[in-house]
Amino acid sequence: MQFETVVLDLAGTTVKDDGLVEQSFARAYDRVLPDNPGRAAAMEHVRVTMGQSKIEVFRALADEQTAQRLNTAFEQSYAELVDEGRCEPIAGAEQAVRELRERGLHVVFNTGFGRATADAVIAALGWQDLAEAVLTPADAGRGRPYPDLPLTALLRTGASSVASLVVVGDTESDAATGVAAGAGLIVGVLTGGRPAESLRAAGAHEVLRSVAELPALIDARS
Fold first, then answer.
1. Which of 34, 46, 57, 91 has the smallest C-beta neighbourhood within 10 Å, fewest atoms?
2. Which runs of E-coded beta strand occur in the chain?
3. How far apart are CA 165 and CA 162, in angstroms?
4. Up-side HSE of residue 128: CA atoms within 13 Å toward CB?
């Protein structure tokens, strides 16, 4: 198989999460809905839907106006944690991306974050020129588990077919979006804390300890 475009998730895949997404959700919820008795159920929903578009997660929890307020508070909370120095790359992630591009592959980051949060993460890591694009649900139309993000990456990079796509992520939603897009290779990574069997059940063809192992896998599968 000749792969052409690699679509990489951010938080948990190329960027250490260490609970940042969940902490940001908790901060946002407490600011917008203090002392709400539904907090525990909301946090469980956040865990189950990890990797999906953040605004869609909030829409499942509240009316549209409240969801928008929660989303804004989430982005503010995540930016605060980034400013506190809590944003670090997964070991070997940057080198892996550079190796993939040296091999002539297109690399696109994608995320369930909104644009402001995605840009804050990329800026904090100094990755503005590392990948060819950073896609958010707003850029594609819908977030995970729909196929829009990988297919937008295909269009942006001019890849010849969905079979030439490699979709990589740490959650079941990442694997599901690869399945929906018909990607030729769907890779799960264990750096987000999800068990390998769950990633495989969601559609991952391969599961790696981290994205640092991705260039070797693509070499072996090409």
1. 34
2. 5-9, 106-110, 133-135, 165-169, 185-189, 206-208
3. 5
4. 5
Cα(119)–Cα(106) distance, integer angstroms: 20
Q: 11 with 113: CB under 8 angstroms? A: yes
For 79-197, where are the E strands, in sequence order?
106-110, 133-135, 165-169, 185-189
Q: What is the arrangement of strands in the sheet containing 185-189, beginning at the earlier edge strand?
A: 133-135, 106-110, 5-9, 165-169, 185-189, 206-208
| DSSP tag of 15 | B
pLDDT per 10-residue tile (average), the chain, 222 residues:
94 91 92 93 91 90 95 92 91 98 97 91 96 96 95 97 98 97 98 96 98 97 88
Rounded Cα distance between 207 and 100, Å, is 18
State the pLDDT at residue 1.
67
Per-residue pLDDT tens for 102-130? 999 999 999 999 898 899 999 999 999 99
Nearest by Cα to 173 from 68, 58, 51: 51
Does the pTM exceed 0.85? yes
End-to-end Cα separation, the chain, in angstroms? 5
Please state the φ and ψ torsions of residue 193, each to the nearest 5 degrees.
90, -5
- 13 touches 165 (CB < 8 A): no
